[in-house]
From TrEMBL, chains A, B:
InterPro entries xrefs: HotDog_dom_sf (IPR029069), MaoC-like_dom (IPR002539), MCH/BMMD (IPR052342)
Highest taxon listed in the record's lineage: Bacteria
Listed name of the protein: MaoC family dehydratase
Domain MaoC-like: 29-117
Organism: Rhizobium terricola
C-alpha cells in the first residue's frame, strides 16, 4: 500500500488477492440524474417523478448506466494503476435503485490475478467493485477484468506516457 | 412483429426466442466523447489525442461507458417493451474500441424467456445486444436480463402508466 501513500501508480507486481481500495463519495443530485437520463436513458421512471411512482421503482430512480458511469469516475480516483484503467468487460448487476440525493462510494477488491502468457508485459486482474449508498446498501456490483502492466512495461515499446507511470 | 409495426408496446406473450430488433444509428462525435470522458471517465486515452497514441488504444477512444450509455439510448428506441426497459444486469464486453466519428447501431436478439414463478405478472428475458460500428465490427456485447410484463399486468396493481402500455 506504500505505493498509494507515495502517490505512485501501481503495477502488476504491486497487487495481491484480497487487496482493497475505497473511493471518495459522490452525491447523485436530481438535476444530474435528469440530465443523464435525458441524454442516454430517456424513460419515464428516470425523468418524471409522478409517473415514476407508478413504475416498479415506486419513485424516480437514476439510470443504471448513470450509476455505472459515476462508479467509473470514482474508480479512476481510487484505483491508481499505471497506464490507467482499461477494462475488457465484466459482469454488472444493479440489486437496488439509486435515488436522487444518494451518496455513493465504491469499494474494490482484487479477486484474481492472471499474468498473460502471450504478453509478458501485462496481466489481467479481476476486481470486484461494489457501489454502496449512504445506508450501506449495495446499488451496483461490477466485476471488471482490467489490464495491468508489469513494471517493465513502463520503459518498453508499450509506452505508457511518463505522466501515467 | 405486427405489434411494432402498429406502434404498440410488447408484452411477455409477444416475445419468442430468436426474435430480433435493430436500432437506429448514432455517430459518436469527438466533442461528445470528450464531454462524456470529462464527466465520467477522465483518463488520458479518452481525453488527449496525442497522449492516447502512446496508449494501448493507439489513439483516442471513447469510454466503454459512453458506448454503453449510447447503446442504452439506442435500445430505448428499438426495444418497445410495455412499461419500459428495466434491467437487473448482465455481462458486458468491449471487444474493440469506439473511435471519434464511429457510426454505431445495436442489434438485439431474444436469448431466453423465463416466466417468473413467484411473480405471475412478469418474466425475465435475456437479450443479447451487439453494438456494431460502420465497418460491421462489434464494439460491445451486452446480455441484459430484462423484466418483461405479461399483458395482464397493464391493468393490475403493478400499474404501468397508460402512456407506457
Amino acid at each position: 500500500m506504500s505505493a498509494i501513500l507515495q502517490g505512485k501508480r501501481l503495477y502488476l507486481e504491486d497487487l495481491e488477492i484480497g487487496q482493497r481500495f475505497t473511493s471518495a463519495a459522490h452525491i447523485l443530485e436530481l438535476d444530474e440524474i435528469l440530465d443523464f437520463a435525458g441524454r442516454y436513458d430517456p424513460q419515464f421512471f428516470h425523468l418524471d417523478e409522478e409517473l415514476a411512482e407508478q413504475s416498479l421503482f415506486g419513485g424516480l430512480a437514476a439510470s443504471g448506466w448513470h450509476t455505472a458511469a459515476t462508479t467509473m469516475r470514482l474508480l479512476v480516483g481510487s484505483l491508481p494503476l499505471a497506464g490507467g484503467l482499461i477494462g475488457a468487460g465484466g459482469e454488472i448487476a444493479w440489486p437496488k435503485a439509486t435515488r436522487p440525493g444518494d451518496r455513493i462510494h465504491v469499494e474494490s477488491e482484487v479477486v484474481t490475478i492472471a499474468p498473460s502468457r502471450s504478453r509478458p508485459e501485462r496481466g489481467l486482474v479481476t476486481f470486484r467493485s461494489e457501489t454502496i449508498n449512504q445506508d450501506g446498501e449495495t446499488v451496483q456490483v461490477f466485476t471488471p477484468k482490467i489490464i495491468v502492466w508489469r513494471r517493465d512495461a513502463a520503459t518498453s515499446d508499450v509506452a505508457i506516457p511518463a505522466s501515467e507511470r
